[in-house]
Amino acid sequence: MGIAVGQQQQHQQSLSSVGIVDSVASTSNVNDSIPQQAPTPPAPSVKRANTNSARNIVKFKKARIGMVNTPGFIELDSALDRTVVWYYRGNTENCESYQVFLESIKLELIEKINYCVRINPIKYNLKLESVYAHRELPAENRAFKTVSREAYIHSDVRAMVDEDFAALMSEEDRYIKKGSGFTLSSIDGLLLGIYEHTPLGGSSYIPLPENIMRKKAVINPMNIDDDCFKWAILARHVPVGHHNRVGQNYYNEEHRYDFSELSSPTPISEIHIFERRNKGVSVNVYGLKPGKGGKVGKGEKDEKVGKESVVYPIRVVENEKAEHFDLLVIEGSERLHYTYISNFSRLVRSQKTSHESRLFICKRCFTSFDEQVKKNKLRGNEALQQHMRLCGLNKPILPVMPEEGEVLGFNGWANMQRHPFAIYADFEALLEKQTERVGASTDGIHAHHPISYGYFVKAAADVPVALMEKYDIPQTPVIYRGSESRDEVAKHFIASVTALAIRLGNLLKATNVPISMGVEELRAHNAKSVCDMCNLGFTETRWKVADHCHLSGRLRHTLCAPCNLKLTTPKFVPCFLHNLSKYDAHFIVTELGYDKKSITVIPNTEENYISFSKRVMPDFSVRFLDSCRFMASSLAELAGNLLTRPGDFEKFRETAKVFQPT
Question: Residue ranges of region Disordered (predicted)?
Fold first, then answer.
């Protein structure tokens, strides 16, 4: 709440001339200038007073008492465009004790503070003025003060006033105990100082980015709580010119909608509750993508604004209802802030075109249609309606085209490298008849109980056999069969596979065989001038590196240094099961929680998982994958594809090591 230097000096001169002690310091922020004790109040009839003079203070006090001759808190004066206001409640009832006087004005004080906080958050303080007499000395003017306190719409003002009165009486008691010989002669009144307060934090409010603010298409209510969703909805009904700050103007509109059952702050996932409780209401939500130059939002170090923040859809309803709201959500470091989009076309059109012609924009994908006449094509709103019949079937997206001359390239080279180990597993289950009711209208006829499993560890061709033997890695299929006394087959599988994964993790972590190149390999490596991965030439910053297998020492690639750094030791071992998602996962998932190590799941539905991982070491896990997701056929059909003519059994390299054709 800043003011210019010239204005500030002018204000200070005017305040000093009416008898206000330097309560407004030489600063541009009213909140910083609020005194911890109440200022000496103004006396309008006194000019050019020396506020440090006791004689003038008495004169101001008499003038003030003379102005207030009726009950109630009377406004004395204000400053800085009414951001500072003084009220005075005189002892018009001539109460003789503090307790009686304070109790008689308590409700008036509470009502006055509540009225002020409904307009804006405030700071306030109290100054209790009185006269003390002495048998031998002249009478003395005394004032007991409270420190300034913050008050908000949700504050318990009654409790705060009780605490303030107790503080005043405590200060008066300390004065009496000094033994000065002065006794209370009369109570003059109570001075109330009100200072407009803008909290520095503690709410969900985030200012709009500059480029969004300039469009004048968004209303951003300045709230001091976490109910920004409610204020954004109500902003539509607040009169123009009064919607920037949440106060009585917003409270008057709360009756329009039912906001019960919503959390504060309200996550996007709860907006459907608001729509359900308010018939005929629909809500779209849009976000801001950081533009070049910074993050979205401003006001804090970690929330600076990009110069070209881009709007994109987050939540778009299929059918807009009679009362439809478009909200823009601004994301801060640890919070979200909702604002109301008053003009959607004005907000988005600059992302689509620099022309000033009218546009019809799809709120789901931001495709735009103008009214220019086109041969054999619809235009304007007709084209938009036709487009929405197809677009409504898709999720909200923001198509972003590359800049002119920009080239997109693949850089995920590390994900293309073969894993040195893979586990292939399968379960066999027994179907047991049952008559258990499953659901309201479904009867279970069979229960699937795993009776055996098998797995095989496939190692890369260059992994030394001695290394596998050292870490007890099985080189032949492992078969386990359950029985009546060994019916926990799935549990045994998890224990066996996790123990195997731990051994594989230790092998990968501890093994680093030095590179060993033959003459031909060395010659080929020296002759290469480009990287085997990115195909870029070697330079001083992209120097040539010989990448080798850490398990065997064999040369793998000739790479540039950046690509070589991307090839790290695997942090997991894959375990493939065919049709895992729809079958085997039901046996495995329930057994993964045998300890407190983390489990990571990529779900498709509540009962169907794309993959899931179990951490077995601090930096190593076993990842269960469904081979059917990239070989979408049965095992019988996949095997049949290899047996196209006699002798094709040799294509089953691993199977042929265990089984022979008959």
Answer: 29-51
